[in-house]
């Protein structure tokens, strides 16, 4: 991890125009920090597992999925340096950051141009497993590896587990010679997405990690892929349980093939076998034949714990009032480009690059597609909300494909499903299956425009994206 000295926040013209934001942000912004983490996005030539030639990757600090560890409620400063050939920013996925720190070009900040820097400052209010990535040209950036892990540690967790491993799941659309296939295809974008054939964990194929016999093990599993939806299973582990969803503590429930959509995270806990040399295989059991992803092997001295259960301290999040909550209906549907919007963009000289918009549209939210526009000419919001009020949204998937729906800046309570026995849990990304209705509840947070979109990135970039305006 690289460090720089104390850095002042770089306030952009866009931030200065945020309506009513200054007063609300003041108590949450980190005014000073003893040291700052530097995150440099750059181009790296690296040979991926099994390939014979190097691939042109985009990485933070020249690493595949670097892991940052910070503490809950403590000052955090990250200086982002853009050494790519295009503009970028950092979105802190799942973290309830101040609006000006959310990292969405043209919405929360000016894009960081090549050779420029931007300083992110916040004190994370919630512990958990999060990640960070850019929010423009995301399909190529994630496809080339531009993502990292942010672990927010909670002092209340100390001593609950003997060992912890971070497992980052990602596919690569690389050919044997190291070149990449197209990251966005019409066939993939209009269906379940364009899949990669090279499946890795922490940048490796079937890595082997060690745990001590009898250890209480915590796995922080993140899906940073743009498309793949694995069903997780731990073969060889007795009664593995999910103890946190999207980083938020939950009542433990059996893993049982939990589906982990793109951008979703699951903290899984179990007690390792008591004998040395035992193997635990982390598998994707979605297909007809299980696909091994990583291996854990017991080695060393046996550990014995007197703790009775595997769980985390309860999540401390804004509790929505279901009795007074306003109802919202969200329909996930197919879509098509609006000729009027295309004509508007042409007349006003707005390019697709300026608005992070692809040329084709296949998806919509409430039959509204994200037309982009510049930050000063936004489309109407999907909904207008009041800060501090409670809302219950029903998400209906009217398409034949699954959609992991992500809401920026908020953590919502998943209340239930019309199609399956879904345990209530906290999340920032929820997987909605075809013809399924899922109800979520949340308290509207800080004023601002908060993105809401599918995290199958080809769906996001071809229409299934909107924003909620909180005032």
Short overview:
With 471 residues, the protein is mostly beta strands. The protein is built from 6 helices and 31 strands. It has helices at residues 13-16, 21-25, 138-143, 186-189, 339-347, 457-460; strands spanning 3-4, 36-46, 55-60, 67-71, 76-82, 91-93, 117-122, 128-133, 148-153, 163-172, 198-201, 208-211, 216-223, 231-235, 238-245, 248-254, 258-259, 265-271, 279-284, 291-298, 326-334, 363-365, 383-385, 390-397, 403-407, 412-417, 425-427, 429-432, 437-443, 448-454, 465-470.
Explain this structure:
The protein is mostly beta strands. The protein has 3 domains: 3-153, Cupredoxins -  blue copper proteins (Immunoglobulin-like, Sandwich), CATH 2.60.40; 163-298, Sandwich (Immunoglobulin-like); 326-470, Cupredoxins -  blue copper proteins (Immunoglobulin-like, Sandwich). The protein contains 6 helices and 31 strands. It has helices spanning 13-16, 21-25, 138-143, 186-189, 339-347, 457-460; strands at residues 3-4, 36-46, 55-60, 67-71, 76-82, 91-93, 117-122, 128-133, 148-153, 163-172, 198-201, 208-211, 216-223, 231-235, 238-245, 248-254, 258-259, 265-271, 279-284, 291-298, 326-334, 363-365, 383-385, 390-397, 403-407, 412-417, 425-427, 429-432, 437-443, 448-454, 465-470. Strands 11-10-13-18-15-16 form a 6-stranded mixed β-sheet, with no helix packed on it. It has a 6-stranded mixed β-sheet with strand order 22-21-24-29-26-27, with no helix packed on it. The radius of gyration is 21 Å and the shape is globular. The model is unreliable at 1-34 and 372-376 (pLDDT under 50).
């Amino acid at each position: 991890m690289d460090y720089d000295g104390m850095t002042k926040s770089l306030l952009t013209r866009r931030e200065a125009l945020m309506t009513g934001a200054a007063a609300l942000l003041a108590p949450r912004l980190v005014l000073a920090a003893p040291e700052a983490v530097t995150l440099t996005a750059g181009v790296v030539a690296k040979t991926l597992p099994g390939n014979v030639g190097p691939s042109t990757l985009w990485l933070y600090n020249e690493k595949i999925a670097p892991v940052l560890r910070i503490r809950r409620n403590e000052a955090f400063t990250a200086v982002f340096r853009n050494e790519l050939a295009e503009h970028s920013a950092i979105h802190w996925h799942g973290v309830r950051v101040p609006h000006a720190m959310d990292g969405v070009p043209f919405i929360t900040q000016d894009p960081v141009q090549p050779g420029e820097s931007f300083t992110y400052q916040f004190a994370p209010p919630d512990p958990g497993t999060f990640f960070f990535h850019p929010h423009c040209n995301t399909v190529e950036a994630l496809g080339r590896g531009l993502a990292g892990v942010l672990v927010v540690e909670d002092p209340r967790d100390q001593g609950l587990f003997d060992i912890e491993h971070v497992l980052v799941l990602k596919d690569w659309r690389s050919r044997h010679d190291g070149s990449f296939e197209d990251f966005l295809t019409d066939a993939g974008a209009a269906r379940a997405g364009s899949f990669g054939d090279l499946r890795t964990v922490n940048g490796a194929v079937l890595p082997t990690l060690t745990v001590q016999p009898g250890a209480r093990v915590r796995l922080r599993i993140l899906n940073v892929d743009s498309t793949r939806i694995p069903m997780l299973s731990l073969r060889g582990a007795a009664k593995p349980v999910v103890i946190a969803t999207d980083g938020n503590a939950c009542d433990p429930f059996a893993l049982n093939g939990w589906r982990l959509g793109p951008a979703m995270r699951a903290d899984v806990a179990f007690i390792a076998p008591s004998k040395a040399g035992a193997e635990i295989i982390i598998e994707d059991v979605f297909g007809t034949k299980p696909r091994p992803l990583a291996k854990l092997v017991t080695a060393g001295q046996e550990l014995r714990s007197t703790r009775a259960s595997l769980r985390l301290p309860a999540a401390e999040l804004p509790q929505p009032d279901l009795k007074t909550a306003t109802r919202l209906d969200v329909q996930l549907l197919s879509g098509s480009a609006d000729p009027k919007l295309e004509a508007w963009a042409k007349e006003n000289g707005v390019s697709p690059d300026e608005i992070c918009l692809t040329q084709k549209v296949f998806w919509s939210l409430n039959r509204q597609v994200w037309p982009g526009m510049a930050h000063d000419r936004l489309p109407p919001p999907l909904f207008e909300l009041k800060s501090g009020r409670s809302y219950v949204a029903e998400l209906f998937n009217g398409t034949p494909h699954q959609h992991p729906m992500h809401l920026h800046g908020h953590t919502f309570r998943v209340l239930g499903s019309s199609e399956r026995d879904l345990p209530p849990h906290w999340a920032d990304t929820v997987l909605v299956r075809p013809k399924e209705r899922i109800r979520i509840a949340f308290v509207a947070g800080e004023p601002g425009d908060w993105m809401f979109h599918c995290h199958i990135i080809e769906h996001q970039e071809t229409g299934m994206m909107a924003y909620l305006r909180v005032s």
